[in-house]
Every structure is written in C-alpha cells, then in structure tokens.
Amino acid sequence: MKKNKIIIPLLIGASVFSLGMKNMSLTPHTAYRVYLYGKSIGLIKSKSSLEKYIDKMQSSLKAKYNVNKVYAPEGLKIEKEITYDDNITSTTKIYDKIKNSTSFTLDGYKITIRPYGDDKKKKSKIIYVLDKNVFKDGIDTTVKSFVSKADYNTYSKNKKQTIKDVGKIVENIYIGNKITIKKAKIPADKKIYTDEDSLSKFLLFGNNNDNNISKYVTKEGDTIEDVAFNNKMSTDEFLIINPNFTSSSALLYPGQEVNIGVLKPEISIVEQDKVVAYQEKNFTTKTEEDGSKLTNYSEVKQKGVKGKDKVTQNVTKVNGETINIETTSEEEITPAIEEIVVKGTKSALQYGNVTSGYGAVVATKGEWGWPATCNTISSPFGYRWGTLHDGTDIAGCGLGSNIFAAQAGTVVTVKSHPVNGKYIVINHNNGYYSLYAHLSGFNVREGQNVSKGEVIGFMGRTGAATGVHLHFAIWHGYPYRGGKALNAMSFY
Q1: Which of 30, 256, 331, 400 sits at a 20 to 30 Å CA gap from 306?
Q2: How far is 440 from 455, CA to CA, in rounded Å?
Q3: 233 within 8 A of 224, measured Cβ to Cβ
C-alpha cells in the first residue's frame, strides 16, 4: 500500500509535465520576442523579415511622403531570446497586430518649440519635418512676416549701419523661443510638414490655421483699417495675411476679395532696434483760480507751445508688437512753453445748458492734455491676436516719470489690479472717463478733484506689463462697468 501511494503522485506529475511540453522544443533555439509599448505580442523567427515586411507593405506611405523606407513604430521592440518555445507567430499576423494598434514611422526630425517668456500656462509645441531645410525656410518666411524686407536684408547680410542724424539701426533679430531639433523616427499618423508654406502658416496661425483664414468681399467706403478692426484684427495682421498690400493706407475697391484671419503665432520673433528721432515735447498746463468768476468759466491766459527734443531709444518688438521702449538720451532742441488756464471758482446752480460745478466744461477733440512726458506710442488702440487692446500704450518716458490728468475731473478709482496693475480712473463729469494703468505709484486719492495737467501718478510696469509704459484709455461711461472703450487718439 505504501508503494502505491508513492507511485500515484509521480504519475500525476508526469502528466502535468507532458502537458507543459506541448509547445516546447526538446532543444533550445533562437527566436525574437516582439513587444509593443511594453506588452508581448508574439514570438517570430526573424527580426529582419518583420522589418522588411513592414517596409514592403507600406508602399502607399512611401509614395505619399516620397521616401525610400518605412520603419516600425516607436513603441515596438524586438528582443532576441534563447527559448524552448515553439509557438512562433507568423510575420503577417504580427504586422496586422501592429497596423491595427499604432502607426509606422519615417526618418525625419522632431522639433520642440518651448514657450517664450515666463508664461507657465503655455505648453511646448512639437512639429515634425522630413527635411531640416523645410523648417529653416519656414522660419525665414515667418520672420519676414514681422520684420520689414529692408530691415531683414540689411541685418541678414551684416551690413554696417550708421545713423547720421535721425533713423533706425536693427541691432538684433532672433527667435525668443528655445528650439531643439532632434533626428528621429517620426510617427506617420502625425502632421508632417513637407513644405515651407504650410509650416509658416502653422507658425503664424497655430493648429487650426485652415479654420482661421476666411475671405471678405469689400464694400463701398471700406478701408483697410475698418475691415481689420471689424474683423478683430490689427492693420499689421491684415497686411501680413494680405501681402499684396504694402501699406495700411492702400485703397480698397468694392468687390475686392481679401483674407481675414486672427494670428496666433507659435514662435516669438524678437527685433531690437536703436532709434533716433525728433519728438514733440508736450507743454505743461498750469491752472490759476479766479474767485470772481463762476465755475463754468475757463480762459486760456497763455497758450502752450510744444517743444522739440532729439531722442535716442532702444526699442524691443515681439512679432511686430512693441513691448518695451527705453530712452537712453534726450537733447532739447526747442523748449516747450507752459500753458496757463484761468478757471472760476465761484459757485452757481445752473446757467443755460452748462452744468455748474467741477469739470463742467464738456471735453471735446483738441481740448485734451497729453498724459505723459513723452510721445512714443508703443501699442495703439485696436485688435491684436483677436483681442481688443482698449487703450493706447505710451512708452519711453522712464520709470517714475510724471503722469498727468488729461482733463479736469473727479478721481473715482485708485487701486491695484492683476492686469492693470496700479491704476487711476477719472470721471470728467460729462460722460467721459479716462484710465491710467501700470503705474508705479499714485499722487491722488479717490474723491479728489484734479485739474487738466495735474500730476496724478507715475509711470511704471505693474500688473500684466512687459515693459515700463502707460496704458491710457478714454471711455464713454465707467470703464468695465457698462462703458465703451474709445480710441483715445481721436480726441487729439
């Protein structure tokens, strides 16, 4: 009995061993294990046979991209094994498994474009090309969209530039993004750029470039400025996507077809210029009070006269938009003459159609004072990248320079904001409000009455500002509370 108890387990073990040997060879042999993204999909006899079969079966892909060879997917690994396993999968079945799961690859270049600046919300962009020259030419085409042909040619040919009296020198043009180009097997199911035109269109308009461009048929009275603004574009953007127009003053005729689209640049073309120019110097305004005159009385005792300075500035542009102006020197050519205004202070209830009290005179075109000590406009009122820039940016005066009230009125807002930074709003008591943003400091308080030309604050770069400047805006109605932003320059 004891002998039988020993034999039965041995027989069971032999049976199990026999079942395990069903697909096993008695001698080891060489095979290749195929892994797709870390998971085994089978065992094959020859690695080269699978690679050749992939290349053979992808003839349409080779024809589409005009290449000589197609490769296995990036996630495919084939590893050599010494095994007893005879369960070999055919090359055809392995190919079908790969084809139904992922895409094959081609020899090319993987290009990573990292965001410019410190905006952490932006993500890196990855693009694929078969030829590095396509990327180089696409970049050149994009650069020429934002840099004038004359400036590009002068800079690229390293021509010596000098300024005799006034003028501009292009000191540097470069791509602000960090870009890496790596030779790689690129996935055929991704967008692969094969020509500079399609690549430059992506670099200008982003992923949905085909949906971003449409046609507009011009009507009687249309101007480039009007067409651009009505379609949420700047005139610069209009000229970029309509290269047949060389100036925003070019005439449009009824029935003319033009391109309309909002730019979304994927790279940042930085241009650094040295500019020497004559600039008008604004006069200051002094207010004298006369207690014998009613509050609606205002008379210019001495008319102000603008002066003239010769100014040297370093100007930085990104994709054609001025983001910073630094004044390095100023030479006075003609001094400005101060304007003296006499205002009455005697109270009255109401006279005719003019309401008595502070700021009673309706501000109209030509009556507004300039809000800064310098005149350079770094960014005008209007659309850029599909978003309305609701004010006029004035730069070049320097950090801490004086900011003046453009008209008499009552200060209604003195506060800080994540976008506007330190800003002031003045109610001119006639339906108009003026806004002064990105200030470095205040010189007024809420509820204070101010005169035209009075110092209310100091130029800075607080809030969402890329450089020292004043964001100056005129609104009809309270800003951002039902009011409408107007082009402040139409008041001058």
Answers
A1: 400
A2: 13
A3: no
Give residue 24's pLDDT band: very low, low, confident or very high (50, 70, 90): low
Comparing 127-136, 156-165, 388-397, the range with the smallest average pLDDT is 156-165
CA–CA separation, 132 and 184 (whole Å): 12
Please name the amino acid found at residue 480. Answer: Y
Contacts of 327 (CB under 8 A, 6+ apart): 311, 312, 313, 374, 396, 397, 398
What residues contact residue 264 under an 8 Å CB cut-off, 6+ apart? 204, 205, 206, 212, 385, 386
Give the residue-averaged pLDDT of 282-291: 81
Query: In angstroms, rounded to a whole number, what is the distance separating the alpha carbons of residues 436 and 420?
Result: 9
* One-letter amino acid for residue 49 of the chain: S
Q: Are 190 and 65 in contact (CB under 8 A)?
A: no
Instruction: Kindly indicate the confidence band of residue 287, based on its pLDDT and cuts at 50, 70 and 90.
Output: confident
Q: How many CB atoms lie within 10 A of CB 75?
A: 16
Which amino acid makes up residue 70?
A: V
CA distance 319 to 142: 9
CA–CA separation, 3 vs 8, rounded Å? 9
Return mean pLDDT, the chain: 86
CB atoms within 10 A of CB 105: 23
452-454-457 Cα angle (round to 5): 125
pLDDT at 10 exceeding the cut of 70: no
Give DSSP secondary structure letters for 312-361: EEEEEEETTEEEEEEEEEEEEEE--B-EEEEEEEE--SEETTEEPSTT-S
Band of pLDDT at residue 179, cut at 50, 70 and 90: very high
How is residue 186 written in tokens? Answer: 């690129």
pLDDT at 356 over 50: no
User: Which residue type is seen at 450?
Assistant: V
Number of other residues whose CB lies within 10 A of the CB of residue 378: 23
d(C-alpha 464, C-alpha 467), whole Å = 9
Which of 228, 393, 383 has its CA nearest to residue 315? 393
C-alpha to C-alpha distance for 32 and 24, rounded to whole angstroms: 15
As beta bridge partners, residue 433 has: 427, 475
Q: Return d(Cα 189, Cα 187) in angstroms, integer.
A: 6
Q: What is the pLDDT of residue 388?
A: 92
Between the two ends of the chain, the Cα-to-Cα distance in Å is 119
Per-residue pLDDT tens over the stretch 54-113: 999 999 999 999 999 999 998 999 999 998 888 899 999 999 999 999 999 999 999 999
CA gyration radius for the chain?
Answer: 36
Q: Which single residue is written with the structure tokens 């032999």?
A: 14
Q: Of 407, 283, 405, nearest to 338 (Cα)?
A: 283
C-alpha–C-alpha distance, residues 358 and 383, integer Å: 35
